Amino acid sequence: MKKKVLILISYIILILNSNLLKADENKILKVGLLAPLTGQYEELGNSLLYSLQLALSEIDDENVFIIPRDAGFNNKEKLRKAIQSFEEQNVSIVIGPISYQDFDEAKKFSNITFISPSNISPEFGNNIISVGISLDSQLKTLEKFIKKQKKNKTVILFPDNQYRPLIEKKLKTLNLNNLKTFTYNPNPEVLTGDIEILTNYSQRKKNLSLRKKLYEDKEDEQSMKALERLDQLYTLGGVNFDSVIIVDFGNSLKSVLTSLVYTDVNQNQVLITTVNQWFDESIFYENTIKELYYPSINYKEFKKYNDIYFKKFKSYPNEITILTYDALGLIYYAWKENGNINSINDFSFKNKIKGKIGTFSFKDKKVLQDLEIYKVDKDRFSKF
């Protein structure tokens, strides 16, 4: 099976480079690709190659071709050699690096412009533009959504891990009334206890127990009905927030959602939101939250891209490959507009750009995505 995959990859690289023989050097757009084509993340690298083949098919311009190079993953020496090979071939625009940790190395090559799928920083940085779905764009979308829902007491939950300083920095840009933050231990054995503190769970359980004692020794009809109603409850009293933003993913997010249900947060009164989940269907089966909202790219385009990719390559793509697909379209647009690409300044467009992920803009040397709000309701995603 692996032999067949290697043959397919070799064929794709041949196709990607074949345009070089068909056009004049001055009329050619050469785009480099930094990807882990070997090693632990080889599958991701191959998926990036496949996505660019799809993008080339849609562009349908024989003057555009891709030069892929194996950059490994967190391998500075391999990355440096890959970029040096681009210099030797006069490649001035490159898709990558994938990881934000590789940016310092890429910045050393000031004569090359890099378009990265990383979402860590939306600001233009020297010679690097990140086109990932940034936390900045997600938080701004959630801010508008929460205000429209007329919520006035928002708490932002995020794990106490290596990303905490970055998240805290991004949160300073939010403009929400009565905004509070709460960090929790990502360890599942500790997390529930943290959420109990946030929701004042112990006191609310105690409130219920004390209230029930008021009626337990009474036999009048009104007291018996009151006790019957209290028996249907798990806690008594509400929480001191009406909306939640959870900045987390995967199993850790699911643990937070489960803990919110366990601590009896009233979902009819509290709006529960999270950040982009790439339409992860596993959340249907482990999520006990009735309605969960989050900002994301265009679902129809995402599904359409996945279906086309699967039909072509008999496998589903890694989520970030749709970003590299759009990155090539963006590069091609800049090339056609400017006649060449010399620096990141060639991407300072006044108009918004439409891609597979949706609409995005370049304002004040910053990439911002116009995201949409989706709702996880039972077993489907629906645009809100």
In short:
This protein is 42% helix and 18% strand. With 384 residues, it is of the alpha/beta class.
3D architecture notes:
The protein has 384 residues and is α/β, with parallel strands linked by helices. It has two domains: 2-133 and 299-369, Rossmann fold; 136-296 and 374-383, Response regulator (Rossmann fold, 3-Layer(aba) Sandwich), CATH 3.40.50. The chain is 42% helix and 18% strand. The protein contains 13 helices and 15 strands. It has helices spanning 2-18, 42-59, 76-88, 103-106, 135-148, 164-171, 188-198, 201-216, 221-230, 250-262, 283-286, 299-313, 321-338; strands at 29-35, 64-70, 93-95, 113-116, 128-130, 154-159, 180-184, 243-246, 271-274, 291-296, 353-354, 359-362, 367-370, 372-377, 380-383. Strands 2-1-3-4-5 form a five-stranded parallel beta sheet. The longest helix is centred in the N-terminal third of the chain and has 18 residues, at 42-59. The two termini are 43 Å apart.
List keywords for this structure.
single chain, about 375 residues, alpha/beta, Rossmann fold, 2 domains, 5-stranded parallel beta sheet, about 40% helix, disordered N terminus
Tally of helical runs: 13
Low-confidence segments, ≥5 residues, pLDDT <50? Answer: 1-7, 18-23
Task: Give me the side-by-side strand order of the main sheet.
Answer: 2-1-3-4-5
Provide the number of structural domains. 2
| Number of β-strand runs | 15
- Which CATH architecture of the largest domain is right? 3-Layer(aba) Sandwich
Q: N- to C-terminal separation?
A: 43 Å
Mean pLDDT across the residues is: 89
